[in-house]
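Listing S7. Sequence submitted for prediction.
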Amino acid sequence: MKGAGFSPYMNLATEVGLQPRGNVISMIGAGFRKFAWLLVGIFCACSLLPAQLQEKTPAPLDDSGQIAVDGRLTLYRIRHLPVSSFPGLPEELIGLLTLRGCLIPQTWEAHRPENVIHASLERAGSSDWAVLCSERGTVSLLVFFSSSPANLQVLAAAPETERLQAHGPTGVLGFNWGIDPASPEQVRQAQAGLEHRPPALDHDALADSVVEGRTVYHFFSNSAWTVLEMPD
């Protein structure tokens, strides 16, 4: 018996899991709209990436400003170099310095990259490094032992503006903290003025200096850092 609007083919299509043509078109349209919204979302997310990247700007290599000296505002300038200016650094050390956001401050008298040194600081024959790291206005003296590549030792730290001195005819202030390797022979010579000189060292020390000023010698022995005795 055939009723109004009845089709045997529609009943057959329902039995075999097929949908009427109108429903199929509706499903296709809904799927297309979902896909279009997905594309719009991806485009919007991608368009935000450049703005996010621009927010992470690197610290400037040169820092300048004014500080009070004897009651007067005095101009200072500090030049820095990126870690990439020092080829030969171990990859582990590069990673640690980069993670801290280090820049390497240069003394006002520098004529070549400085304040990164390679020496045998832990023991005779070891391959170690020391670095002055400037980060957010503070400079730290860091030591890296090859025997402990995951760690950085901090020997000293100070605000950069406390390590300045006047130079040149203009009286502008410049950075005055420098580090150098000191061989056992160099330390022996520096101790020549002592009444009783200690035994000669068997590995390098770390010379920590003020430009045109005093030098302090840090020496690592028996798992600890000490400051070597020097003549007044």
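Caption to Listing S7: primary sequence and predicted structure tokens for the chain studied. The chain has four helices and 13 strands. Residues 1-19, 38-57 have pLDDT under 50 and may be disordered.
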